[in-house]
From TrEMBL:
Pfam families xref list: PKAT_KLD (PF20433), PKD (PF00801), PMEL_NMB_N (PF26141)
Segments of skewed composition (Pro residues): 291-301
Repeat found in the keyword field: no
Membrane-crossing segments per the record: 507-527
Record-linked SMART domains: PKD
Organism annotation: Pagothenia borchgrevinki (Bald rockcod)
Family under the similarity heading: Belongs to the PMEL/NMB family.
Source species, domain of life: Eukaryota
Keyword Signal: yes
Upper classification of the organism: Eukaryota, Metazoa, Chordata, Craniata, Vertebrata
UniProt-listed InterPro entries: Ig-like_fold, PKAT, PKAT_KLD, PKD/Chitinase_dom, PKD_dom, PKD_dom_sf, PMEL_NMB_N
Signal peptide from the UniProt entry: 1-19
Protein name (Swiss-Prot/TrEMBL): PKD domain-containing protein
Length: 581
């Protein structure tokens, strides 16, 4: 039972120790607590530290940083969605809104500007510059030193890394906002992790023309691959260095030494390869620079801060990184949102230009702290960097060709359609997919697209069938692709649907029309024969009685056929009768 009690007491003490807030800054005796108040974690005043909601912080840096180069940190304040930052840095309401029963109009300042006669100082008592009275104060701290910056809603800090051991570090920031005369309100704190290394930071990109999936490190043989190096040197520390690149492409083609950032190489066989490069930078040693003119007054150092020797033991100086996201080696890092902590420390103002931030690098590796292996030789410092990766090279679809096009007519359902059979061949590796696109005569407007998977076969020969309903000139694009390559060919074809007799209904209509024409011709001919001129003679009229009676005796049908069968030169009823008068 006693053991259980002791264990419970131990667990209670341990949980209390774990739950105890760990402040990011040491409280220094020179800190102006009246102007820059210090709030404990969980202080209820943090909820109302900004009108309209919480302010969040986006903190980043441009590490990894080569030892002796400069490292730059950035911070952006992100305000509630109902507010926006004006070009002059003032924060105004983005729309009409009501906060805690108070009406605020659009474009009205969230907090009025500070008085022009404000004689503001930093937390350690250093005065602001007379020509600069911004609304925010950022206190940065690392390596037991601190820097104070008065700036707008976005700010940055650049510091040297000379004589700093290699390894990973954390930069902590406390943010204050001017609220009234001689009063700054803490908005919270944030942090970001950075690293210092003696290896040259750089990235390598591999590109190939017509690469289907960029970045998959799979390429095709007999086609050049571009290897491009991007040095990560935002402070231009290597600008005066003599930098060389020693390439080995892993195919026993020999080494290539170049000073160019981009080189090309062609693999003539397929397989797996491991290209690698070693970078050497010969940097002039600053220690060999001639001494400065002793008659000139040295300018005060910039971005330099030292901690006070006295500490308030009630605060814990150790930086907690358990809730801090690791910064990408080149990309920005986001800190925790609106972390709230007591603020301490400071000496001098500083500002810096925001660097160009690269992307696409791996996350920062936490480095063990050690001294750089500097052995100056002839007033130069040597720095190195290396890179190696694995790639796969495949045989590609080298060539696609349309070898034959056959145009024919095929009966489908109630009509006949023109069919075009396209015979396509290829060389190299076999395709997995074939696509054909029918376009207009100008090869600009797609009319029909069809893609299909290709069954594996020993020979690369395919027949593609397309149906056409209209005559005209068409463009045909045929492409074949597999996992690593793509080949394309094109041709023009003239489709001629010459006759309109392709439909049974049309044929029946034409035949009916011909029958009608023949029938009309027969009727016209018969009518003409019946209407032939036949004058009557007097003697025929007088003695016509018996003849007329005989005419009535004959049938009409026999008379019709008799007329049709008459010889052209015989006349049964001549106009003139050869009789004597």
């Amino acid at each position: 039972m006693r053991t259980s009690v002791v264990l419970l007491v131990f667990l209670a003490v341990a949980s209390h120790t774990v739950a105890k807030p760990r402040n990011r800054f040491t409280r220094y005796p020179s800190w102006n607590n009246k102007m820059y108040p210090i709030w404990k974690d969980g202080d209820a005043r943090y909820k109302d530290s900004w009108k309209g909601g919480k302010v969040t912080f986006n903190v980043g840096n441009d590490s990894p940083t080569l030892t002796a180069a400069k490292v730059t940190f950035t911070i952006d304040l992100e305000f509630p969605h109902t507010q926006k930052v004006q070009p002059d840095g003032d924060v105004v309401w983005a729309e009409d809104c009501i906060i805690n029963g108070t009406m605020y109009g659009e474009s009205e300042p969230v907090y009025p500007g500070q008085s022009s006669d404000l004689e503001a100082v930093f937390p350690d008592g250093t005065p602001f510059k007379k020509d600069k009275k911004p609304a925010y104060v950022f206190v940065w701290k690392t390596w037991g030193q601190y820097w104070q910056v008065a700036d707008g809603a976005s700010s940055s800090l650049t510091i040297d890394t000379d004589d700093i051991p290699l390894g990973s570090y954390t930069m902590d920031i406390v943010i204050y906002h001017y609220r009234s005369k001689e009063k700054f309100i803490p908005l919270g704190y944030a942090s970001t992790q950075f690293s210092i290394t003696d290896q040259i930071p750089f990235a390598v990109s591999l590109d190939q023309v017509n690469d289907i999936v960029a970045g998959d490190l799979r390429f095709i043989q007999n086609r050049a691959i571009a290897f491009t190096i991007t040095l990560h040197d935002p402070s231009q520390y290597l600008s005066s260095a003599d930098t060389t690149f020693n390439w080995d492409f892993g195919d026993e083609s020999g080494a290539l030494i170049s000073r160019e950032l981009t080189v090309t190489h062609t693999y003539i066989t397929s397989g797996s390869f491991k290209p690698q490069v070693v970078i050497q930078a010969v940097i002039p040693d600053k220690a060999c620079d001639p001494p400065a003119d002793p008659t000139k007054t040295p300018s005060p150092p910039s971005h330099q801060g030292t901690t006070d020797t006295e500490e308030d033991n009630t605060e814990d100086e150790a930086s907690s990184t358990s809730n801090t996201q690791d910064a990408p080696s080149v990309a920005k890092t986001s800190s925790s949102v609106n972390r709230e902590s007591p603020a301490v420390g400071g000496v001098e103002t500083a500002g810096a230009k925001r660097p160009v931030i690269l992307t696409g690098r791996a996350t920062v590796v936490v480095l063990a702290k050690r001294e750089a292996d500097d052995k100056p030789d002839d007033c130069v410092i040597y720095r190195y960097g290396s890179f190696c990766t694995g790639i796969e090279v495949f045989e590609a679809i080298e060539k696609v060709e349309i070898v034959q096009m056959d145009n024919s007519v095929m009966a489908t359902h109630n009509m006949e359609r023109n069919v075009l059979d396209i015979t396509v061949t290829c060389q190299g590796s076999l395709p997995k997919e074939v696509c054909s696109v029918i376009l207009d005569a100008d090869c600009l407007k797609p009319i029909h697209t069809e893609c299909s998977m290709v069954e594996p076969s020993k020979e690369c020969q395919l027949v593609l069938r397309h149906f056409f309903n209209d005559s005209g000139v068409y463009c045909i694009n045929v492409s074949m692709a597999n996992d690593v390559s793509l080949a394309v060919t094109s041709a023009k074809v003239n489709i001629d649907i010459a006759s309109g007799l392709s439909s049974p209904g049309t044929i029946a209509m034409v035949l009916g029309f011909l029958v009608l024409v023949v029938a009309l011709g027969i009727v016209a001919f018969s009518y003409k024969r019946f209407k032939a001129y036949r004058p009557l003679k007097e003697d025929l009229i007088v003695s016509s009685g018996p003849q007329v009676d005989r005419g009535h005796v004959g049938s009409g049908s026999s008379m019709f056929w008799k007329l049709l069968n008459r010889q052209g030169t015989v006349d049964d009823c001549p106009l003139l009768q050869d009789r004597p008068v």
